[in-house]
Amino acid sequence: MSSPASPDRSQGISLITATAIVIANMIGTGIFTSLGFQVGDLPSGFVIVALWAVGGICAFCGALAYGELAAAMPRSGGEYHFLSRAFHPCVGFIAGWLSATVGFAAPIALAAMALGKYFGGITTSVPPLAVSMTVVILVTLVHTRGINVGAKFQNTATWLKVALILVFIATGWMIGEVQPVSFLPKQGDWKLITSPPFAISLVFVMYSYAGWNAATYIVDEVRQPQRNVPLAVAIGTFFVSLLYIALNSIFLRVAPMSELAGKVDVGHVAADHIFGTTGGSIMSGLICLGLVSSISAMTWVGPRVTMVLGQDIRLLAPFAKRTANGVPLRALLAQLAIVIVLLLTASFEKVLGYVQFSIQLCSFLTVFGLIRLRQTHPDMPRPVRCWGYPVTPLLFLGISMWMMAYQMKEHPSESLAGLFTILAGLVIWKISPKQADPEKY
Q1: What is the pLDDT of residue 435?
Q2: Do residues 316 and 434 make contact, with C-beta atoms less than 8 angstroms apart?
Q3: 291-325 pLDDT, tens digit each
Q4: Which residues form a coiled coil (predicted)?
Q5: What are phi and psi of 176, to 5 degrees?
Q6: Dihedral class, residue 437 (left if φ above 0, else alpha if ψ from -120 to 50, else beta)
Q7: CATH: 1.10.490.10, 2.40.110.20, 1.20.1740.10, 3.30.365.10. Which one for 15-378+387-432?
């Protein structure tokens, strides 16, 4: 069958908006929640900073690899498109299936849960679940208005969030009461870095960095995608890595580890120590606004993957339909339904463990696919090449494999749930007739 018409990129989003989408996808739930799950087992300022630095290096290496793939094969869909070309359409479909079902819906649910928790720091009169549900529904409604409205909303929310973090870092450095924490290595730190808790904590860290590949899911909507998509993922990832290391240093500098341990709302705890109780409540409100940016970015990106799946898989064809203003409305509403189910039925940690294993596995295969394509298609046009090849992709693969092995060992039920979702995708692939050849794109 004929393939869908080529997208008109002349009216697409700019490099600034594409970078904003990457930053907004990355700076979300994880940075304001995950430190509380790390300091209990890793009570060292140096080790915590090293942990976030390792995560940043891993994400940046992955971004470099994805940049080459996006420039060589410019089509929306992210891992779905890349893995279909590097291995087999079935492998790509499974990655796309994960993105369409939980890859974006679960992080949206996590961000909404965190937003509800932080909103509780402002007032306890509204149940957190009601706050979470209201926000995801309103943000979805915004994105039904079209790309231009979504882009304006996204840019405003993202740069407001960045400004918030920069203010938080500056004030924490200048006026916060200093805790007795050292960021220089001390005896026993190397043992902590090579311990299972470090690898498990890296799961939370990599969840915080998740989203560095966001621009590759919406290639069809980006102007000059072969130039702007690689730049967006590289610039966005590098910038966020610096922010994460600085922000976690401030959290540890102003708040005792004993108060941070086990807490989801670590940003509120730190803000209390910087600004006092009233200032902490105001900061929690600003963090809520920042989380809206993350929810918005993932609400924009996720349905585009489902839409591309619908172009190629007849069973999912209804999700390929777009409105007059270019919105894949059915895919958008399907994602909203999954988010609501997750909000009603799952806890924060279980959702995180479930989705992160699957996300990391898809990224692992995609970066490995870059190496494979270098061997099988050496003459493929590559307007952008992965800097530091083959060291940077191998570094990403090594860190990812180490992390996934420990996650499977320590959290087998959540990891197996992710594998079960993969199996369900394989079944759907087998029973569904195909309507287009992904190799054409």
Answers
A1: 60
A2: no
A3: 888 898 889 888 988 888 888 888 888 898 888 88
A4: none
A5: -70, 150
A6: beta
A7: 1.20.1740.10
